[in-house]
Task: inverse folding
């Protein structure tokens, strides 16, 4: 059992690397599956010293839920922002800086949150505060900045908290 | 069957064209550089995504074997696009904003881009340990560190 744990310190990463190798090859065969699996074993072991205390993701269903929600929000926001760009006069837009107090502490989790915010059109994450307790976000059109903070915290951060911590 | 997938492929290509156009149009129309940063995020998500789905449908319907390369392109775009946007935003903050023109980050007092030695002299009282503090930030706040 200990041997298995040493061999696969991060089973999810092993699976992901195997899958990425298969996608890179694009022709699915036993050969590429085995080689991908080999890479999936070697790469986590070799990179382990450079990435200590990796987060362990315990709830795959939560991750799937998060991805679906983020994807849906990206689609909706795309249409909303496209209408803003096409049909609003530029001087009517109210761009706004907002600062989001973070409950997330893991750098990986904050990265995921910042990336989601940037990929959702209409909001771009711009900076972290000096100690990493606040996230600076720029909104393209935010008549009510507080509601944006509230939405990001309840929709994304709450779920990331469940996934990472 | 072939006509259905042809229809789907053309619809997706038109959608991606529209969003690509809106993204480029936004670059011209919006007035300040931070607002312009919003435009390309549309082009990279739905614009590129629709092309990639069209390509996968095309491979599944008209080629010998299905193709999943496109999923990887999506993955790499999703990983890299926020980093570019983040860097551009940081340059903007560095050159055009002052700590006073930004919202206040609570007890942290200053945003990371302004957390330079220069910034320390203006507003800070932690003389000498600025370098050590920044080193700690780069590592991120591990659970357990205050």
Result:
């Amino acid at each position: 059992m200990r041997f298995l744990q040493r061999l696969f310190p991060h089973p999810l990463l092993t699976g992901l690397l195997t899958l990425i190798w298969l996608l890179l090859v694009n022709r699915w065969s036993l050969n590429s599956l085995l080689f991908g699996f080999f890479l999936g074993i070697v790469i986590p072991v070799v990179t382990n010293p450079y990435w200590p205390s990796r987060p362990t993701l315990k709830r795959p269903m939560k991750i799937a839920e998060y991805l679906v929600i983020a994807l849906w929000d990206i689609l909706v926001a795309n249409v909303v922002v496209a209408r803003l760009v096409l049909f609003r006069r530029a001087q009517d837009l109210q761009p706004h800086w907002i600062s989001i107090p973070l409950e997330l502490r893991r750098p990986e989790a904050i990265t995921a949150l910042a990336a989601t915010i940037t990929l959702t059109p209409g909001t771009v994450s711009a900076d972290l505060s000096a100690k990493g307790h606040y996230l600076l976000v720029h909104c393209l059109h935010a008549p009510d900045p507080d509601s944006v903070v509230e939405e990001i915290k309840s929709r994304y951060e709450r779920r990331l908290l469940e996934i990472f911590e | 069957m072939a006509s259905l997938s042809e229809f789907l492929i053309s619809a997706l290509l038109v959608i991606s064209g529209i969003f690509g156009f809106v993204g480029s149009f936004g670059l011209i129309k919006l007035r300040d550089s931070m607002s312009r940063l919003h435009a390309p995020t549309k082009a990279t998500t739905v614009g590129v995504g629709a092309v990639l789905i069209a390509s996968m449908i095309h491979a599944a319907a008209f080629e010998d074997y299905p193709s999943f390369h496109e999923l990887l392109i999506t993955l790499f775009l999703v990983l890299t696009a926020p980093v570019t946007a983040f860097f551009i935003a940081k340059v903007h903050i560095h050159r055009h904003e002052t700590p006073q023109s930004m919202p206040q980050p609570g007890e942290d007092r200053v945003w990371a881009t302004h957390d330079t030695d220069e910034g320390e002299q203006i507003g800070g009282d932690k003389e000498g340990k600025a370098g050590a503090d920044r080193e700690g930030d780069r590592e991120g706040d591990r659970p357990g560190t205050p």
Q: What stands out?
A: The CA atoms of residues 99 and 147 of chain A lie 12 Å apart. The two ends of chain A are 25 Å apart (CA to CA). The first strand of chain A starts at residue 96 and ends at 101. Chain A touches chain B through 49 residues (CB under 8 Å).
